[in-house]
């Protein structure tokens, strides 16, 4: 008998880095959260609870165990130093992309999407972004700050330029954010996912990055998030979106953000995140 | 620098009483609750959690900050003295109406709707009532008492008379309550909101009072209530109802009741109430 | 005044055994649970919380108080001794059937369905089974064991043979389980209840046993279960299924399983189970 | 095999009423609670959780199974009708005493102690009362009411007269309450149980009634109560008090009150109440 | 009848600013928290829950209602901008001191003590500090940052110099922190409050600032804190410390920090903070 | 930059197996739990929450980072197959001992101590056992089973023989268990740790195995356990016991058991276990 150190990788994602084509990493940062913080604990909560899920997806007809994925865990982010932390995420993503692997990032608050998108856009200058969220996240500043969970998509816009961001499910924001989007800066679909099929048809041969703020789901389905916004999507709607994503021929990276595991001790919100991660990893492997 | 006393008014509802056209007040009473009490804490829970919501509603395209609303807080109700407490609510509402402001009341248990409706009916003798709820609340007595959360709509009927109350979403009650309604006393739609559009069309030029027992929502969406009744409405259904309410030309007052904040520590139920309050205040300001 | 011992039977199910035509019993066993155990506490949690529900069902237009039901409580099962415990359940069910009463069993983990089905099949050799669940439960072995919550429907198949089991709502399992079902062993509908009406039409004159794993519901509706599987059914879908079940002329027994009351302190999951029990008891009395 | 109706009596307290020398009953009333209500659910919570405790007490060297105790469950109290409810409790206690059994009452809020004490004082005019509590409960009125959880010991004083009530552990009240006690009306020991041994020596041959508000314990030990008051007693202190109570030769009845099971989902507060009930029942049997 | 805006000041602390001699303010900041954030919500949680406490303290024999205190609520702190936020706290405190009122500050994380101490030390250059805490907080840097909850007492030392800080109850820190203290920089008492009486005797005529990290209490007493450290003090020990503080003739300000209300839904931790605030406000008024 | 797989070893216990002198392993088994199961999740809960603790212990004046410890994680135990699972634990422990490392085991339910003790006793035939617990665990059978959490110390006695087991803090059990112990089979100290110093003096040069059921602590300190037993020890008492353990010259292995992380969402119980593990690992390294 010989023993190895504990391995708490996400369910069936136990490849070594060199062997993997998809790399999972989590970003324990919630420094700019304006309401209830705690998303920094999402990554490990998901790892521990992933033992409750099957490796086979009847939606994709694929199994996690058939595809090499490496889970490198929480990045080591300096507490409270927002820009330094974003830089660690940026450098990590850049290296993953350089090694010809696909990044699968887990937040943290939504601001952590920005450095991932920056690294992705350097490699794929023509990248487009699909954004599922309850919130616009299009402010130019929030409490005087350019870098915030509430400005993150605006900052992504600074990287990508107009017409490259497609937002769905949006049901909260300030009036000027909706107006700014409507001025042609982003495609913004209020309240639901209508138009997603058409968008995907249009982007099918482009490089696409997908970012999902899990609060796009109704708080009934996903109470474990800092800023619950009633009137959201059902999980079946998200599964339908994943089915549509199968038509994208070049998903170059993905993330989901804003699970706060302390807000839902029932574990149901963790289960939502765990299943979402399985489906997204499988989509990245197609 | 000069300091003022703490102001925990509901989000952006910080006008002085004299300047306001809508007045928010909460009624910390749950004395006749037959199952799990605690709704007395709803008002302040909503105030504190309202900081997590935007002042702008993309549903109404209106902002709370553009309309003068005063939040006068919890009324000072004598504990356990039901009739005295109801009288305080009645006198408060009467004064608000006399001052030509609209009452926006937050329960407490559902019985607190009765004195509000009484004051409203004195000012608007032709008032009609729209009632969204899981429960009939049509008993004539409950455990030997005339005044109870389970008899409140029957008592409102005593004030309004037949044909003036429209009930939707009802899925719990005793058999004789359904029969009594069906005998022409109230319009009662079981299980969902079908027929609401027609009702609103019919009442569009009448004075209308709206009372929402939040347990009309499914417990999945709104677990923070004393008597959860599975099989209810989604929050999107309620938002659709609010869209329909825009067609009412004379909403003279409104309330929602039965949030028990202790039953849902995730805060999701509070978020439902907070958003509902924003939408209802805006409807009253139209 | 004369006093009797405390009676905590399920709401309005207070007949003596000899007088009853339906018998409620709960099976406090969760020994083979692979994820979060605790379903052993479901029975008494339901009894205590049943005081929050009406005895009248507006769905069936029937009242519990009009039909004689006896609640015999938790069976006395040896802890950790799986086969002995299953035998107690089997013998109890056999006796209930011999006394010409209908069994209404409450789990516990899903494995407790097996001995009930065995006893039912002895009395009704032509019995068919309708199975609502998130999980296939069709493994032949699980961690080397033949008797497990993950193999229970396969074991029921060993009793009933091919073509007699109809599964709905299934969204989790290993690939080979779906393939084994598709090879003609069971009817398996993925993700929803489509086809249930046709199945019921086909089985309307057969003896039918109904087993419901409550995790067929979405975790948003029913978080109180050990292995939450997002993307499930709404409670209204389950109510619709109950309406369809009215067309079955010979329901010979029923159960529901997998409530873990400790995972949902809001009580909403208990309320789901309580209402489900009311509806199922009424269906058995038709 | 023959089946009986479910029996959820408190652990090993399953005698029939006629055979019992101690009678357990619970009073589901919290109508005058000024802070967080919910004590009405204490009785059944204790019954269900009592299965986690041994019947043998190493403190008393006695076993519940060796003494005949009957548990008659929750009394049927009219919701919200305080005086009627108190009367039901009074009549029940009177009958139990008339049948030469000892009453062991479980609250509910503290006001339910009053009718028990009244019935006890009728049978034992010389009865003295030992009162463990965080709160004085000596107000003459509370929010204009004579009958309240905050006036209950003052009302007991009205029955017993000066010098008959001994209060320990008191750490909260209004100034005038402490002064009123100090004027010779009651013996009041602030903050701890010092002097309890002397009191017991003094009362050893008197009829004594014991009432314990469990919030005398520190909220660290007993968080499941509506009005937590930090700085209280440890559970070992309460066990020491029970040891001292063994020196009382004529305990004529007892109660404990103010468990709110919903406020402590860990079950630790229920465990405190369960163990307390075991010890008190055994004391009554000595 | 005339209505005023909602007033949710802490229990009986409803004076206007100009009339008050003690000013309560809360600092909703937890940006440098290294473990579970959420202390930003402490202030309002305390306000709402203060209705459950008496205004009279039997420990001090004083009533809140007899002394003029103003509660100015949460300061308006920029989210995520640590230095800017500290500056707002500093300026606020300076003004309060200039107006000859005493500051009573509520955290937030412990770092918010620094700007208060700075303002206090400007007015009282000879100020000494008594520090009750589980943690040393003496690091010079934490994750590369000078300003952190883990460095706050070291930064206070930078202001006050050696021999002016007295730490009690410390049971967690890095080795070099204990050594640095022992080198004569601070007085540091490990594990308990021994020596506090002597310290107070020594400081009785000095200006003294008191800072209490509530995690000095055992997590059994106070689970609602981000970094629980078992083996702490009982609440009675803290009450004893307050009795000793009565011997200080010149308490010039005080704070307590690190309540995270979301981590203890029972409300017991809030009750600890509420009672602590009452006692500290009364001490400041002596 | 190069990436490694996620490492969620316990805080600072990241040595490879070959380099370590102490080996941590957790046993996810709760199959014979008679009340609330869930201890199977303790190991990973402790790993994730260990980031909240310092590596330095001011009690031992030692740091985890100075001693080589390997954490091999949860053993792979067959669900529900008690004897097979015990055998995996036995073989693992045997190998660790053969490799001249010390076993530090984390339960799971208490039965998992048996196979560890068996392996230890094979290597150290003269081993003695110190047992801290609320419960006797001395039954010969429990519900007809020889292998149970309630019989585990009796089974250890079968291995060790009379006079080799020292039990402290015991406050629950059946009468015959106390009598059997008192007949000279074990040393059993009821209620507290008195006599522990003398015991340690006696055993100081013997090989000693330490097993701690964390429910020896008061539920106020440690609510996260399945069978809470009020009246237990404070955490400071446990720390004092650890100080005494320093006088043992040959601790050959240790464990603690019965953390159920789901029962205490505040995380305070996890913190107790995390700190206990740090202290015990350091004791094993002395």
UniProtKB/TrEMBL annotation, chains A, B, C, D, E, F:
Its EC number(s): 3.5.3.11
Keywords: Hydrolase, Metal-binding
Signal peptide residues on this chain, from the entry's feature table: none
Coiled coil: none
TM region(s), chain numbering: none
MF GO annotations: agmatinase activity
InterPro entries associated with the record: Agmatinase-rel, Ureohydrolase, Ureohydrolase_dom_sf, Ureohydrolase_Mn_BS
Pfam families assigned to the protein according to its UniProt record, in alphabetical order: Arginase
PANTHER family: ARGINASE/AGMATINASE (PTHR11358), GUANIDINO ACID HYDROLASE, MITOCHONDRIAL (PTHR11358:SF26)
Similarity remark: Belongs to the arginase family. Agmatinase subfamily.
Protein name: Agmatinase
Gene name linked to the record: speB
């Amino acid at each position: 008998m010989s023993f190895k150190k504990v391995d708490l990788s996400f369910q069936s994602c136990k490849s070594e880095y060199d062997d993997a084509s998809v790399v999972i990493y989590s970003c324990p940062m919630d420094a700019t959260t304006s309401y209830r913080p705690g998303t920094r604990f999402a990554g490990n909560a998901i790892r521990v609870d992933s033992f409750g899920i099957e490796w086979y997806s009847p939606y994709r007809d694929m199994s996690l165990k058939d595809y090499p994925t490496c889970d490198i865990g929480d990045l080591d982010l300096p507490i409270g130093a927002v820009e330094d932390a974003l830089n660690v995420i940026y450098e990590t993503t850049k290296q993953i992309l350089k090694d010809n692997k696909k990044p699968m990032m887990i937040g943290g608050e939504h601001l952590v999407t920005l450095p991932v998108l920056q690294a992705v856009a350097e490699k794929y200058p023509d990248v487009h972004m699909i954004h599922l969220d309850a919130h616009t996240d299009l402010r130019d500043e929030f409490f005087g700050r350019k870098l915030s969970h509430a400005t993150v998509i605006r900052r992504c816009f600074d990287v990508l330029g107009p017409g490259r961001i497609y937002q769905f499910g949006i049901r909260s924001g300030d009036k000027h954010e909706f107006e700014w989007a409507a001025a042609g800066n982003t495609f913004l679909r209020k309240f639901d996912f209508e138009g997603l099929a058409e968008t995907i048809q249009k982007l099918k041969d482009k490089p696409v990055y997908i970012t999902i703020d899990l609060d796009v789901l109704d708080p009934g389905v996903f109470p474990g998030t800092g800023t619950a916004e009633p009137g959201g999507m059902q999980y079946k709607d998200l599964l339908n979106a994943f089915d549509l994503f199968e038509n994208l021929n070049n998903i170059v990276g993905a993330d989901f953000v804003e699970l706060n595991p302390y807000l839902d001790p029932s574990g149901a919100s963790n289960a939502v995140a765990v299943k979402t991660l399985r489906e997204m990893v499988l989509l990245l492997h197609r």
